[in-house]
Batch of 2 targets.
Target 1
Amino acid sequence: MTDAQFQQPAAESRILLASAAPSGGGGGGTHKASVTPWITAGGVADELHQDMSTALGDLGHAHDGIKAGTAGFASVAALSTILGTWETRLGAVRSECQRLSGDLKKAGVSFGENEAAVKTSFEAVRNSSKIDDYSKGR
């Protein structure tokens, strides 16, 4: 088949990968990934976990003794209910931050290990490839 006989597919039937797009999408070769953002995010989540633990303690201390001397006031019952809901919410946030901290750090370590393995495998192929020998006529 000659080039003249070959018909180009209609534009709407072509599939382009985002990474191969000339502009307006991926493919610019500027995407750089690293372990650092994952580890940093894990550290931030760990800090938030610690901050939520402190906040829960502070919230509890702020309500210490509120019932003494205020018996019979409707606001005391309302404050007790609100305290319970805030403790539940902050406890859930604290638990999620703890989970995220571990998961993000683990993702960073896995990413780094995978990146090193891929680099090593490409270097092995590059070092054993005969393509350069063929292109130089050896």
Target 2
Amino acid sequence: MAQLRGVWGSWGDPHLDLADECAVLRVSGELDLRTEQAFLAEARSIVSAGHRFLVLDLTALRFCDSRGLSCLLALEWLCRRLEGRLLLASLGVRMLKLLVGTQSLGVFSCYPTVGHALAAVPVASRPTWPPPADEATAG
């Protein structure tokens, strides 16, 4: 099951620290037919709450199929509609092959690390990175 976690704790955790317009989320597990609705609902609520720059850390994403790709495309559209961006960080080989094989690599902004992705976010919208040690271990 795909899960979204704030880098500093799970959603609803009072220690979650985000910049006003940017969220950094760690995606783990599988993003497919079984998990797409929950994943998209949670990610949409984060973007709709004003985090128009959404960085997804895909380091722990084990599997993504065409349904998962559709979720990412929907998030890309939503972020752009709000004059923001979806930024994908730390793509694994499988995810990269999926994007290349579906000719959708050019649709997304892809970066080797979260730090590189955040460098593409306007300075005023960027959260502190890396997060302070006490926040990084919360949750």
